[in-house]
Amino acid sequence: MFAVIRTGGKQYRVVANDVLEVERLPGEAGAEIAFDEVLMVGSGAQTTVGTPLVGGARVKAKVLEQMRGPKVIVFKKKRRKNYRRRNGHRQELTVVRITGIESGAA
Question: Where are the domains of the chain?
Answer without folding.
Answer: 2-102
